[in-house]
Design a protein that fits this description.
The chain is an alpha+beta fold. It has a single domain, classed as 3-Layer(aba) Sandwich (Cytidine Deaminase, domain 2), CATH 3.40.140. Helices cover about 25% and strands about 25% of the residues. The protein contains four helices and five strands; from the N terminus they run αββαβαββα. The protein has helices at about 5-15, 55-65, 90-100, 120-125, and strands at about 25-30, 35-40, 70-80, 110-115, 115-120. Strands 2-1-3-4-5 form a five-stranded mixed β-sheet. The longest helix has 12 residues, at about 5-15. The N and C termini lie far apart (about 35 Å). It binds tetrahydrodeoxyuridine. Tetrahydrodeoxyuridine (THU) binds near residues 44, 51 and 77.
Amino acid sequence: MDHVALLEIAEQAREHAYAPYSGFTVGAALLALDGSVSTGCNIESSVFSPSICAERVALSKAISEGIHGFAAIAIVGAPADQAPTEACYPCGVCRQVLSEHVEMDKFEVIVRDGDEVKVCTLADLLPKAFVL
Ligand code: THU
């Protein structure tokens, strides 16, 4: 699947975001090595700390369905009433959580930045990840 197609799936997932507190909605599309795609959106809570990012929703859905091994994740995020134009990279927690499920130097993180599609690896975003 190409980068733009995965971003479009992330954009659809963003429509389901539940973000009444931040007003910032995010969608993610996680491509597994078997070709399947798991989607996620951010889901906030009135007690704040249980809020979860789109990326970890997508990962949790995949792992809970027995899907392991991932090639890429596309992420889009913006204030709820706006189209996503600025790059939305995963937060530090999501980088760390993803790191133990992927090959960091091969796993692609795909974002839109204006009219450009930007691709980097998780290793670029999280050098010296914590390893237990
Ligand atoms: N958020 C994500 O879902 N993914 C990110 O990569 C960054 C932040 C969510 C968390 C919260 O619901 C809202 O965006 C504002 O931080």
